[in-house]
Task: structure prediction
Amino acid sequence: MRTKLCVALDLPTKEENLALAKSLKPLEGITLKVGLRSFIRDGKDFVKALKDLGFSIFLDLKLYDIPNTMNDALKECIKLDIDFLSVHASSGKVALNLLTNTIKEQKSKLSLVSISILTSFDERGCFEIYNKDIKQSVSTLALLTKECDVPAIVCSPHEIELVKERASGLFIITPGIRLQNSSETKDDQKRVLTPLNAKRLGSDMIVVGRPIYKAKHPIEVASQILKDLSL
Result:
């Protein structure tokens, strides 16, 4: 299966994000990621506008709360006709089972996506929170994801092989993607890799933000990434 491209819409305004989305429309098979800031600022109408353009939507809210609260939020998200919704795997087995059961009961096409360890974490930061190193933490959360029938997981490119080994069959989404010779080397992403290397390791969908939307010609960069992913 060809690795897919997901473009993160993290620009400062709704208008800029919509302009970027419209410029990407000629390219086939792109998913758009709407993050927390964009969703809080621009709301449901923004998501609908993107759907009307024909894109698949990844609503990246990283839900993390008590099970019933997460489930109520999920039911509202299902109404938006989105394709992917992220939740923290560390919200636990009870929450994840409740969410997957709700999706089945409502016969929704939505794919739940579990967040493993944020790509902003280095080993020290991970140990401070989870009392385990990154590989141990990702392994535990990947197994939990599969056990709860959550179909997809987010992990850094450096944990792709680990997830495939420990929890085979999960749809692997990888942020922390940077282009070769990119100027975006010193930012909040600690564990990064190029699109082609992420593909070779087995990523099913890469998430790319700044390397595309900060480029002088975003559509050219996106086109080149799609070409790399088709090799």
User: Anything to note?
Assistant: The chain has a mean pLDDT of 94. The domain at 4-229 is CATH 3.20.20.70 (TIM Barrel). The chain is about 45% helix and 20% strand. Residues 164 and 170 are 7 Å apart (CA to CA).
